[in-house]
Task: inverse folding
C-alpha cells in the first residue's frame, strides 16, 4: 500500500509544530513587494509544488491558445481622450447578474483551490468580500457552500458542470440556493477533459502520489509541503465531503455528460429559475440561441485555454458576440487577463464585467488570502489608472465610449522583445 500521511493522521500531529510562519515568511514579504500579476506568478512558482504550479499555469496541447489569449491584448491600442476634466476617485461600480458590485471584475470559479494553499476558496471569498465584488464558487471546490456563505455576504455565482446525474445536479443547485447563491454559471465547454500535457508529464494527481519523483519535488518546496501536510486532506466539498478528491480527471470523466444538449440546458434553467449564464460561449450563433432558450447572461470564455487548443482569444470574439445580441444583454468575459488595461479593453469592447482566473490563483498560491487581496489590489489600481488616462470616469462611460477608444492593429515581436518574457509570466514572443 502506498504511504499516505493523511490516512495515518500525521497532519493532526504536525499542525502543532510552529514551522509554517518560518517557511512562509519570505513569500509573505515577496507578496507585499509584488508590483504586478507577473510578480505574483513567479512567487507562486517558487512556493508551489511543480505539479501544482503547472496545473494552474498550463493550457491545452501546445498551449497556443494560452499564448494567443495574452497576445491578443497587445494588438489592441488605447486611443485616449485628453483634457477630459475628470478627477479621482473614479467610479468602478457596476452590476453583475443584476447585482451591485464595487468592481467590474471578479475571480472566476475554479476547481480545487486548497491544492494551492490550505485557505483555498475561503481566501478568494474573503478577498472578494474585501473588495465588494462578485464571488464565484466551483462545483468542484474544496470548500463548502455553507462556509463560503459565511465569509462572503455579497453577490455570488455558483458554477456547475454538465453532470450525467440529474439528481446530483438538483441536489447541488438546491444547496447553492440555500447558501445564498443568486446566479448560476453552466460550464458548456467541458464536455471532454482537455489534454493538459504538463499534467501528464508531471504525473499530476489530487492528492499527490507519494512516490520518489513527487517527494523530491515536495522537498524542493518546503512552504507548500508543510502547508499540505499540516491540514486536512482535500474533498469535493460541494458534492460529497466524505469522498476524497483522489483524481480530478477521473472524477470528471466519470460524471461528465458529453451528450448534454440545449434541451438539457433548458431543463436546468427551469430547475434553477434565476439569473444564469452559459460559461464558454465563443460564437455569435450560440450566443443568440442561449438567450432564446432563457439564459439571462452570456459568459464569453474558452476555459482559460485549457480545453481545445487553437480556440480563439476571447477578447477577439467579444465584439462579434456583442454585435449579435445587441446592447441590452449582459456579457461576462474571461481569458488572458493579466493587467488592469486588459480589463479596460474588455469593458470597452462589449463586456459588462470581466472574470480573472490565473491572476488570483497565483496570488493564492503565493500567499493565501493576502495574496488574493494583493492580486485584486494590483488590478484595481491598474484599471483605475487606465480609466483615468483614457478619460473615462465611470465604467458606464468606458463601455459607452469604448469603440472609439480601442483600435486593433497587427501584433509585433517588439511587443515582448526580450528573452525573459516567459519568466515574467508572458508566454509568447520570446526572441
Result:
Amino acid at each position: 500500500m502506498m504511504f499516505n500521511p493523511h490516512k495515518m493522521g500525521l497532519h493532526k500531529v504536525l499542525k502543532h509544530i510552529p514551522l509554517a510562519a518560518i517557511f512562509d515568511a519570505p513569500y509573505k514579504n515577496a507578496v507585499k513587494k509584488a508590483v504586478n500579476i507577473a510578480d505574483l506568478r513567479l512567487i507562486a512558482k517558487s512556493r508551489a509544488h511543480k505539479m501544482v504550479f503547472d496545473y494552474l499555469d498550463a493550457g491545452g496541447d501546445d498551449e497556443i491558445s494560452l499564448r494567443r489569449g495574452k497576445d491578443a491584448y497587445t494588438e489592441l491600442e488605447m486611443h485616449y481622450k485628453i483634457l477630459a476634466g475628470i478627477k479621482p476617485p473614479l467610479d468602478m461600480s457596476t452590476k453583475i447578474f443584476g447585482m451591485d458590485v464595487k468592481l467590474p471584475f471578479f475571480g472566476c470559479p475554479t476547481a480545487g483551490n486548497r491544492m494551492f494553499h490550505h485557505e483555498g476558496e475561503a481566501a478568494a471569498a474573503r478577498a472578494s468580500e474585501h473588495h465588494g465584488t462578485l464571488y464565484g464558487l466551483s462545483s468542484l471546490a474544496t470548500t463548502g457552500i455553507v462556509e463560503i456563505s459565511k465569509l462572503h455576504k455579497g453577490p455570488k455565482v455558483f458554477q456547475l458542470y454538465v453532470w450525467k446525474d440529474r439528481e446530483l445536479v438538483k441536489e447541488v443547485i438546491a444547496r447553492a440556493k440555500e447558501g445564498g447563491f443568486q446566479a448560476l454559471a453552466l460550464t458548456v465547454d467541458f464536455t471532454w477533459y482537455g489534454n493538459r500535457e504538463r499534467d501528464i508529464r508531471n504525473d499530476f494527481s489530487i492528492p499527490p502520489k507519494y512516490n520518489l519523483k513527487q517527494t523530491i519535488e515536495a522537498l524542493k518546496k518546503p512552504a507548500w509541503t508543510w502547508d499540505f501536510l499540516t491540514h486536512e486532506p482535500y474533498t469535493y466539498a460541494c458534492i460529497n465531503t466524505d469522498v476524497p478528491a483522489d483524481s480530478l480527471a477521473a472524477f470528471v470523466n466519470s460524471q461528465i455528460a458529453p451528450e448534454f444538449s440545449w434541451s438539457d440546458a433548458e431543463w436546468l434553467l427551469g430547475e434553477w429559475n434565476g439569473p444564469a449564464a452559459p460559461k464558454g460561449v465563443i460564437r455569435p450563433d450560440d450566443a443568440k440561441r442561449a438567450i432564446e432558450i432563457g439564459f439571462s447572461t452570456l459568459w464569453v470564455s474558452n476555459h482559460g485555454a485549457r480545453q481545445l487548443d487553437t480556440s480563439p482569444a476571447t477578447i477577439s470574439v467579444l465584439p462579434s458576440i456583442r454585435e449579435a445580441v445587441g446592447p441590452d444583454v449582459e456579457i461576462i468575459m474571461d481569458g488572458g487577463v493579466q493587467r488592469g488595461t486588459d480589463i479596460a479593453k474588455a469593458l470597452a469592447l462589449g463586456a459588462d464585467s470581466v472574470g480573472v482566473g490565473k491572476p488570483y490563483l497565483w496570488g493564492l498560491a503565493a500567499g493565501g488570502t493576502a495574496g488574493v487581496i494583493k492580486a485584486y489590489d494590483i488590478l484595481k489600481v491598474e484599471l483605475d489608472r487606465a480609466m483615468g488616462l483614457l478619460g473615462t470616469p465611470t465604467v458606464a462611460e468606458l463601455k459607452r465610449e469604448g469603440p472609439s477608444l480601442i483600435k486593433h492593429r497587427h501584433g509585433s515581436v517588439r511587443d515582448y522583445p526580450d528573452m525573459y518574457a516567459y519568466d515574467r509570466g508572458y508566454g509568447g514572443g520570446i526572441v
The longest helix spans residues 358-390. The radius of gyration is 21 Å. Confidence is low (pLDDT under 50) at residues 427-431.
